[in-house]
Design brief:
Number of helices: 9
CATH topology of the largest domain: Glutathione S-transferase Yfyf (Class Pi), Chain A, domain 2
CATH class of the largest domain: Mainly Alpha
Shape: globular
Radius of gyration: 18 Å
Strand content: 5-15%
Number of strands: 5
CATH architecture of the largest domain: Up-down Bundle
């Protein structure tokens, strides 16, 4: 079958996140377990990327949450590396958010979420520069400026090409970048009392557009879980 729908339970996918996502009968995913509140989504941005793809494609799925600090035997049996997200499609478990989202796009092409190759790398350096700034102990080491440079590049791009990276419609690259920008907002706001400056209005409008989507509000981690997830890396 080519689609998964509420009217056809046999088309469900299974997914595993840092807790496990189990997608509808079509597939099962696994996802990360949260730190602060049981039975809610964990703070993994890569897991949220997969969930966003499922939601934007209106696919039914079963979600299984997994405690990555105490990985159950059944999880390691299907995924020896013990990483999430993991998804079951066509009776086969697949890991890695890049591979998973591409597989979903090929199997369920409607609505289309593909991003042209020349646009797929827009904003790709933001997450690494964010981590560098977040973990920095030296306010003069240039890590804040490195992040600002990447955000400014995104702002300039969106000014000419927005509101989303591929134009008027959301696409796969937005579903990858959005969860990372959520971590930027929550983690830097908490640990550095820092926020995206008003001089980058297109970035601010972009994040607001993504964060306000039903798919995002349904799949985002609690702010306290994002903070708890980054605390060991910042204070450790």
């Amino acid at each position: 079958m080519s689609t998964a729908s509420a009217k056809n339970p046999s088309g469900r996918i299974s997914l595993c996140q840092c807790l496990l996502f189990l997608l509808p009968t079509l597939s099962k995913p696994a996802s990360k377990l949260p730190v602060t509140k049981p039975n809610t989504l964990g703070d993994c941005p890569f897991c949220q990327r997969v969930l966003l793809t499922l939601e934007e494609k209106h696919l039914n799925y079963d979600l299984k949450l997994v405690d990555l600090a105490n990985k159950p035997e059944w999880f390691l049996k299907i995924n020896p590396e013990g990483k999430v997200p993991v998804i079951k499609l066509d009776e086969k478990w697949t890991a890695d958010s890049d591979v998973i989202t591409q597989s979903l796009e090929e199997k369920y092409p409607t609505p289309p979420l593909g991003t042209p190759l020349e646009k797929a790398s827009v904003g790709s350096k933001i997450f690494l520069t964010f981590i560098g700034f977040l973990k920095s102990k030296d306010p003069n080491d240039g890590t804040e400026q490195a992040l600002l440079n990447e955000l400014r590049s995104l702002n300039d791009y969106l000014k000419e090409n927005g509101p989303f990276i591929n134009g008027k419609d959301i696409s796969a690259v937005d579903l990858s970048l959005g969860p990372k920008l959520y971590h930027v907002e929550i983690a830097l706001g908490h640990f550095r009392k820092w926020s995206v400056p008003d001089s980058l209005p297109y970035v601010k409008s972009y994040t607001e557009a993504i964060f306000s989507r039903d798919s995002f509000t349904k799949t985002r981690a609690l702010p306290e879980d994002v903070i708890a997830g980054w605390r060991p890396k910042v204070e450790g």
